[in-house]
Amino acid sequence: MTINIKQHCKTFNEKFVCNHPIGFITSKKSDVMAGMKVNAVTGEITDYKIRKIGTKYIYFLNKVHSDGDVQLYGQFTNLEQAINVNN
After folding, report:
1. Do the beta carbons of residue 30 and residue 57 sit within 8 Å?
2. pLDDT for 9-26, tens place per residue?
3. SS3 category, 73
């Protein structure tokens, strides 16, 4: 049974990174949010204005079963972590 990786990536809006012994690794950009302001003197939270401060890549290890079913096996912030996962 074969899996169409291109179709999987299109469905989940992800980018193919590399093959893995148990499946394949994909990535997706994710927003990094911040925005709490704390009064240094009183320690009181003064503002909850959440804003985007950047983006980062999230890596997904997808396990492919013998029947062609794809299962999310892990989510990582570092590509090396995803590559070093054992079966």
Report:
1. yes
2. 999 999 999 999 999 999
3. strand
